[in-house]
Amino acid sequence: MITIQDPKELQAVCRAWRAQGLSVALVPTMGYFHAGHLALMDRARPLADRLVVSLFVNPTQFGPGEDLDSYPRDPERDAALAESRGADVLFSPPPGAMYAPDHGTWIEVPDLAKGLCGASRPGHFRGVCTVVAKLFHLAGPDVAVFGEKDWQQLAIIRRMVRDLDFPVRIEAQPIVREADGLALSSRNVRLDEAERAQAPQIRQGLLMLQELASGGERSAARLQAALHEHFDAHLPLGEVDYIAIVDPVTLAPLSEVRKKALAAVAVQMKNARLIDNFLLEV
Ligand code: PAF
User: Fold this and answer.
1) CA-based radius of gyration for the chain
2) Distance 28 CA to ligand 1 centre (A)
3) Domain 2-173 is of which CATH architecture?
4) 92 CB under 6 A from ligand 1?
5) Residue 128 CB less than 6 A away from ligand 1
6) Which residues contact 249 (CB under 8 A, 6 or more apart)?
7) Ligand 1: which of 40, 58, 152, 273 to mutate, most ligand atoms within 8 Å of CB?
8) Which residues contact 48 (CB under 8 A, 6 or more apart)?
């Protein structure tokens, strides 16, 4: 594995691969790898001849007062892990290499970004889309893998790829969880002991919704109310940011669960915002 910091060098390496007829897979990350990131790499590895893992804590997707400076980082461990998963290139540019001081071009998908996490993190998905588009231009991947934990991000990137004709296939990787059901996240390290003990209730609550839906409950309002009650009772250390039942593709709020519906939640703990989702099927 080679480590590249210069965007133009990444572009040249990937261009040379493509000239040799080699395909490229990309796994974009912000580092501090856990088993969820490794699953993305394991998924991507057999999909192409060459695997690029990017590690870039993208400043433009953090709002004022968010945790850009304290975002967990461990670049040496990350490099060893990426290599162990068969990455050919680890792309870890310094922020100044990705954004010119007068950077002024942005990509937005406002329709899909206005609700859920986008409502409480204005500008977040604009930063995500812009950096992902830049990574696509630099690596020119045939395929890129994103996790389903950030379902809204995945839906937005799919829409961006469709709308702007990026020649890349997007693959979705299911959520990786702790044994007790908590979705893996780099921010989980910030939970204190009591919060960590309650956090699996997010998953428990989502499973309860599936049971209610399987038992015939179709009303999104009643399902949301049931989840609020569950969190009030079992997750008192968390403050609910949203509980939403939406169309899995358009992210439009649903009033009734018919066929497939996405239940998505965000809960603010003291030092970590936790998100999770469940594809309800009836
Ligand atoms: O999901 C993430 O880690 C980030 O949002 C991404 C896709 C790497 C863009 O910075």
Assistant:
1) 19
2) 6
3) 3-Layer(aba) Sandwich (3.40)
4) no
5) yes
6) 155
7) 58
8) 22, 23, 24, 25, 141, 142, 143
Active site residue 124: no
Chain centroid to CA 2: 25
Instruction: Work out the burial of residue 262: count CB atoms within 10 Å of its CB; fewer than 13 is exposed, 13-18 middle, 19 or more buried.
Output: buried
- C-alpha 228 – ligand 1 centre gap (Å): 29
Q: Which residues of the chain have pLDDT under 70?
A: none
DSSP reduced 3-state for 44: helix
Q: What is the rounded CA–CA span in Å between residue 125 and residue 208?
A: 30
Tens of pLDDT, residue by residue over 213-263, are: 999 999 999 999 999 999 999 999 999 999 999 999 999 999 999 889 999
pLDDT in tens, 250-272: 999 999 998 899 999 999 999 99
Among 37, 124, 228, 230, which one carries the catalytic annotation?
Answer: 37
CATH number among 3.40.1030.10, 3.30.1300.10, 3.40.50.1820, 3.30.413.10, domain 186-281 = 3.30.1300.10
Ligand 1 atom 8, closest CA? 29
Residue 61 CB–ligand 1 contact under 6 Å: yes
Ligand 1 centre distance from Cα of residue 215 (Å): 37
Query: Hey, whose CA ends up nearest to atom 3 of ligand 1?
Result: 29
**Cα(222)–Cα(29) distance, rounded to whole angstroms?**
36
- What's the predicted TM-score (pTM) here? 0.97
Task: Return the SS3 of 88.
Answer: coil
Spans of all domains in the chain: 2-173, 186-281
Q: What is the largest CA-CA distance in the chain?
A: 59
Q: Does ligand 1 lie within 6 Å of residue 58's CB atom?
A: yes
pLDDT at 259: 87
